[in-house]
Amino acid sequence: MARKVLVIDDTRNIQIMLRDFLESQGFEVEIAGDGIEAFDSIERSQPDLILLDIMMPNMDGYQFISQLRKTSDLPVIMITAKQQEADIVHGFELGADDYITKPFKLRELLMRMRAVLRRSTPREEEKPITIIGDLQLDRSRHKVTLGDEPVELTPLEFFVLDILMDSQGKVVRKEDLCIRLIENGFSGSEATLKIHIRNIRMKLRDELDQPKYIETVFGIGYRFLEGS
Q: Whole-prediction pTM value?
């Protein structure tokens, strides 16, 4: 299910920019022009995350988050042109989870959003073992087996394979894989990702033209298929 994001900003071009970008990344997006309008939207849409501008009419960002924290622990990322430490500290004191200053890069915002969502979402009991066809990935032992044979993977290769197997049948976008790698301390360029995918395929004895495990969705990313 798509995560819902409430963008609170009174500048129309920023609303459109954030809405279009976040929808392209699979989020559902609601827009509010000030804090008062935002509370109506929260009642209606029940967002998972709020992107909050500070300088707004009627009810500014500080007033909004102060009021919000009386009843809700919804995660909030402040988006602000204010770069003074005192302003940022004030936002955290009122209950913000993170902040990003204007101008900002959309990819950096996306990484911060995912980090906040990951921290704020209760983790389900993670299954230690994933089995697809004759391939088994054991997270607790950091071990992969193909049939009865162990497959020796580097930590980065194991991490990539884990993501793909966990999303079996779904396309995982290259840029999303790169962001996940960066967030977990690995190099995240698309050029090196391509090499790691190639190495995983070689170790799984997977054919590029007739893949059994990892299919390339050209121009988009990769999909893990069910092994026969």
A: 0.61
